[in-house]
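input
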Amino acid sequence: MAFFGPETGPAAGLGQPIIQGAQLAIDQYNEDAECEVNYELFDSQGSPDEAPSLATEVAGDESIIGVVGPAFSGESAAAGPIFAEGGVPTVTPSATNPTLADNGWDTFHRALGNDATQGPAAAKYISETIGAEGVFVIDDASEYGAGLAGIVEEDLADTVVGTDTIQAGDTDFSATVTRVNDSGADTVFFGGYYAEATILIGQLRDGGFDGTFVVADGVKDPAYLDAGEAAEGTIITCPCIPATDPGVAEFAEAYEAEFGEEPGTYAAEAYDAANIFLDGIAEGIDNRADMLTFVNEYDEAGVTKQLSFAENGEPSEVHVYAYTVEGGEIVPEGEIS
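output
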């Protein structure tokens, strides 16, 4: 079995809980296994540019009969055709761009709701809970960030007072700050990852913006808290179950015992994804074709939800949750219905 996603690089903080969630499932399986399952890490750094060569490497290794990942949407789009051609079954615990399910890849599966669910949920929260009257929408030009921001913009069309695009890796967002302030927005939505969000919110606050900052799952990482006081009050949406949910209590306890920390974003979803493959291995499956059939027909309770897939690989059950940065911590608020 393999993990495909960022082990290092600017988004490694989001990759680590996924790596460890799958690792826990494999370690638990191997405790009683007659034949141990190996776990290989393919470090894409979350980059679409790195993904094709790594996917080719995975596809060429017939001993890999299941992949937890790819972790991000951009690398999923780049690697997906290669996995499909190689017949490599994949279950992503974290890639949320809706179009990934529209490519006809029979090997693609997603263990969480996509942005066609998260986007409207974020828009609903902004409209109904925050009561925003003027929303400025920003994205980071990535497959994930731009796609999600576009959905939020469309759903909030009547209250959107401006939009802008930044680039991943940039550190000077002064032009964007000026546009936000000139728009009179009381709420900013950002579609992107935590590295840019951490800098952006600091510059927004320094520039005088005192409204609500709303982000999504790509920002739900402890590193975002490095923004300090500027991050307080940030709303984070995520199709990831809170570690405090009673349904994941046993998993969370085992995760903390093994890794010395609470489960991070998508750790539980990665645990579920890995266990799908492990259930197939437990039934004696040792090749990709049979594993793909097994995953396509899978319908069992995981720790995050009932796990089964539509023909296009989308999950049958979807949940989106809201979190707030409060007292220097990311605190769950509950499910957005």
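quick obs: The radius of gyration is 19 Å.
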